[in-house]
Amino acid sequence: MPILYEEVSEDNISCLKDLVNELMAYQKSKAAIHPEFFDNMNFETRMIPSVNNAKYNYIVVAKDDDEIVGYVYSNISSKEMYSNDFATFFDLDSVYNADVGCLSQFYIKEGYRSLGIGSVLFEKSKDWLCSFPSIEDLFIFVSNGNDEALKFYQGKSFKISHQILDGFITVLRNT
Ligand SMILES: CC(C)(COP(=O)(O)OP(=O)(O)OC[C@H]1O[C@@H](n2cnc3c(N)ncnc32)[C@H](O)[C@@H]1OP(=O)(O)O)[C@@H](O)C(=O)NCCC(=O)NCCS
User: Ligand 1: distance of its center to the CA of 136 in Å?
Assistant: First the structure.
């Protein structure tokens, strides 16, 4: 199964709509704490505003022939974006620089997991995030119940920092 990896431009993110919505449904199915928070989360409410509000975006898909079987979405944003009406995701004073990097969304379709595709996409994102000299702080937010994802990121040297929203989200950092 030759998997191809392709960057997707911001103008073409509609091709990810189904997978973004699958990711939200997957996370809801795993969550024991506030699963209802996912009810308002979908491509239109999560992906589009995030892409529009970020300073830089990086989206890579994994393709099996013409079918997109996975994607990763990372961005660079002002740290102030992470304190809003929904939550304060981390202590802003714990970040020296103005901007932070985030591996924001990550999804491999069932049947394509544990084949190394996620590791390839992760490395591409990490390389992109680390290509910004002014970015020292990287974040990943994992919703509760998704222990496989937590283990995956910990295996890639990210560390659990803290939880927010009664444990709805576990915050991981690179330092
Ligand atoms: C989490 C996720 C993105 C990881 O992607 P993946 O393609 O399954 O990851 P990989 O195959 O690269 O790695 C998974 C495991 O398989 C192992 N692996 C890597 N290459 C492998 C290969 N060629 N063959 C077999 N196993 C392999 C890895 O060591 C890893 O083990 P670990 O988790 O114990 O470290 C993916 O499983 C997924 O989309 N899950 C559902 C959605 C989700 O949870 N998203 C994250 C939201 S925060």
Answer: 25
Within 8 A by CB and 6+ apart from 154, the residues are 160, 172
pLDDT tens digits in sequence order for the chain, 175 residues long: 699 999 999 999 999 999 999 999 999 999 999 999 999 999 999 999 999 999 999 999 999 999 999 999 999 999 999 999 999 999 999 999 999 999 999 999 999 999 999 999 999 999 999 999 999 999 999 999 999 999 999 999 999 999 999 999 999 999 7
Instruction: Measure 98 CA to ligand 1 centroid, in angstroms.
Output: 32
Q: What is the pTM of this model?
A: 0.95
Nearest CA to ligand 1 atom 32: 152
Closest CA to ligand 1's atom 9: 118
Go through the domains of the chain in sequence order and give each one's CATH number: 3-173 (3.40.630.30)
The rounded Å distance from CA 87 to ligand 1 centre is: 28
User: Does residue 115 have its Cβ closer than 6 Å to ligand 1?
Assistant: yes
Angle (CA) 36-147-155 rounded to 5° is: 140
Residue 159: how many CA atoms within 13 Å on its side-chain side? 4
